[in-house]
From TrEMBL:
The keyword Transmembrane helix does not apply. InterPro entries: Starch_synth_cat_dom. GO terms for molecular function: alpha-1,4-glucan glucosyltransferase (ADP-glucose donor) activity. Residues 5-219 form the Starch synthase catalytic domain. PANTHER family: ALPHA AMYLASE DOMAIN-CONTAINING PROTEIN, GRANULE-BOUND STARCH SYNTHASE 1, CHLOROPLASTIC/AMYLOPLASTIC. This is starch synthase. SUPFAM superfamilies: UDP-Glycosyltransferase/glycogen phosphorylase (SSF53756). Its EC number is 2.4.1.21. Gene3D superfamilies: Glycogen Phosphorylase B. It catalyses: [(1->4)-alpha-D-glucosyl](n) + ADP-alpha-D-glucose = [(1->4)-alpha-D-glucosyl](n+1) + ADP + H(+).
Amino acid sequence: MPNQKILYVTTEMFPYQEDTNMGSFVHKMALKMHSEGNDVRVFMPRFGQISERKFQLHEVIRLSGMNIIINDLDQPLIIKVASLPGERLQVYFIDNEEYFKRKQYYFDDEGNPFEDNNERAVFFARGVIETIKKLNWVPDVIHLNGWMASLIPIYLKTYYKDDSYFKDTKIVLSVYNEDDIALNQNTKEILEFDNISDLESLNNPSFLSFVNDSMNYVDVIVKGNEFLEEKLDEAYGKADAEKSDYLNADSIAKVY
């Protein structure tokens, strides 16, 4: 099934993150689809732990320079790109000094969740959407992995609902047993600034509450773990989207 344009959006990917189920799975899926002749691209956050020198990241000036407004504050969007080591497969990194320079992922040195994890997720989701449009590359399939990516279908079907750019794109969501970390209570205010208010997750915002909500905005849901934790499995069961049990990377083409 070659000649499809497939976009993977993920919070983790090997070798940029090692020894994670999601990171390994996204890496295998992307390589499998790339090797079969598809036009594959990957987007992920440029967390501070990802070495720009080791992985040869460089800024794409023509894509950088936009500002994304988060809760009435302008935040500059920086796009960096690298080829997956040993492969001709491009990985794009969403970057911003305020949100992604820090060396930790979601917690400070005392183990407390960052107060702006919600802003970082919104910035990432909107940054991916705006950058794809600027690339003038329309994916046939967007495959989402990780809680930050789960905001993308919510934004596409609400904030961007009158934008026809992605009208023929199908959205696949892989659901993983990620940590369910609480988000700051100003999450509701941040999304309402973008005219997004009709979400259950805004009453008790957390990583997985957004994943649960996003299941209502996608075409296909795939189990990223063979057995999902209770709240995820309940939301998975209730969702109206087409569903697939856990698949290995070699079988993912069946979904597409």
